[in-house]
């Protein structure tokens, strides 16, 4: 719970870019957001992270592994990366690529995951472009999939990276981050 105030400060700037993701705007909502993430982590279904700008130590966003599942036969771990958001200032700065590089390295190299998936509102062109640039493979759109943040029903675009694709994705990320 130690990151609530820093996350709330990060979420307090320009909120226009948060149209397609959950970014709590008040303390009670942020406490509930963090509590839910920590409960999922305690249950073994996720891992929550904050993104920190190393230049000044400020929290600039958040992301998490979610829907983490361990298959019985074969013994394989899979997860989704979601709830990703960054401050307006951090967007386009390379912070998302760095965050995904760290998370994907942990997923494939430390945890031995077989698959990491991503889901976004199909209308979120910026997120879809970022996932494509990341090297995630587009799997398709599930129509009328879930409630949208604007009150309607959204279509969801699905992407994934498989363990055998990770070396190529990692090389692309390293090249991007070296620039």
From TrEMBL:
Its domain of life? Bacteria
| InterPro entries for the chain | Acyl_CoA_acyltransferase, GNAT_dom
Q: Which residues form the N-acetyltransferase domain?
A: 13-137
Sample GO molecular function, one term = acyltransferase activity, transferring groups other than amino-acyl groups
- What sections of the sequence does the record tag as coiled-coil? none
Write one Pfam family the protein is assigned to. Acetyltransf_3
Protein name per Swiss-Prot or TrEMBL: N-acetyltransferase
């Amino acid at each position: 719970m130690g990151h609530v105030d820093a996350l709330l400060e990060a979420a307090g700037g320009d909120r226009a870019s948060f149209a397609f993701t959950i970014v709590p705007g008040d303390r009670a909502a942020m406490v509930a957001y963090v509590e839910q993430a920590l409960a999922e982590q305690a249950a073994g279904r996720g891992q929550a992270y904050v993104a920190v700008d190393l230049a000044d130590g400020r929290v600039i966003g958040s992301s998490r592994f979610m829907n983490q599942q361990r298959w019985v036969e074969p013994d394989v771990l899979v997860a989704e990366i979601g709830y990703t958001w960054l401050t307006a200032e951090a967007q386009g700065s390379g912070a998302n690529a760095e965050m995904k590089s760290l998370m994907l390295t942990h997923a494939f190299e430390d945890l031995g995951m077989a698959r990491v998936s991503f889901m976004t509102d199909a209308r979120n062109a910026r997120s879809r472009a970022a996932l494509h640039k990341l090297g995630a493979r587009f799997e398709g759109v599930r129509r009328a999939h879930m409630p949208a943040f604007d009150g309607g029903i959204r279509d969801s675009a699905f992407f994934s990276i498989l363990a055998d694709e990770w070396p190529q994705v990692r090389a692309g990320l390293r090249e991007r981050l070296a620039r």
